[in-house]
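Researcher: Sequence of Tetratricopeptide repeat protein follows. Predict its structure.
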Amino acid sequence: MQPRNMSMSGVVDLAAVKAAGEAKAKAEQARAQRQEEGPDAGTDAGSLVVEVTEATFESDILQRSAEVPVVISFWADQAEQSKQLNATLERLAAEYRGRFVLATAEVYANQMLFQQFGVQGVPAVFAVLAGQAMPLFQGAAPEDQITEVLDQLIAVAEERFGIVGAEVAPGAAAPQAAAPPRPATPQELALSAAHEALDAGDLGGAIQAYKNVLADEPANVEAKLGLAQAELLRRVEDADPQAVRQAAANAPGDVQAQLSAADLDLVGGHVEDAFGRLVDLVRRSAGEDRDAARLRLLELFEVIGPDDPRVAAARTALARVLF
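Model: Prediction complete. Tokens:
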């Protein structure tokens, strides 16, 4: 079975932008602390693979995920395929020399983790970045595909969260001394200000701040996500959920009523319902109404993220009704 595409979004998480900013700050603090503590501090070669339990999950996974990508392999003793995958991942952890940490979790000894991650079967591999879990792949896979997924994970960890593992030299017991943290760029400071405004509930200020970042960096993924989230939150902040849903039920052809209901669906975690409502609205409408429904659907795609399979499915459904 080939690995599924990674989803850097996972479930709907309107705190994702805040988490990314906090993770970057924690990563910089961790690097500075390792430098102060000297060459004997940090991640040694023997700690690149850990056996996680429910009791050690917070220290082994959540805390470490602010400093280094953590890959979790769920396995079972009677599943030979999962043990073979673990052997491959352990070897890759050594070869990648600290750019990710591998945690193995035996499913029968960790039923709570098994359920929390929504594991459907073993082997199953997940990642945790800045405390956020995401699926990587299910089942066995060729090594070249596994390394491709790992490379993608490491790139996202650095670009979106500022997380870079402390490199372990081959055969060394400790990593090389980390370089001093670099000063924040004006764009990073502007993005941080936007995050702070969003966190403080200043949605208007956050929207303008994210737009300022995008004016200089139109391809900034973090700013696009933050802007989409801030605009969504501003649209629903004064909404009466019961009244909105009743209005949408009473007037299936009322475009604004359906747009408002879709926003509430998404904020409530009903992603497929929100997408389905808008795809159906595009199908049933024409002219300016159709354009309004289509544009709102594209905005909600930004909130979830392009890598999410629900977005891919909705894009396909939208293409069918448009063409």
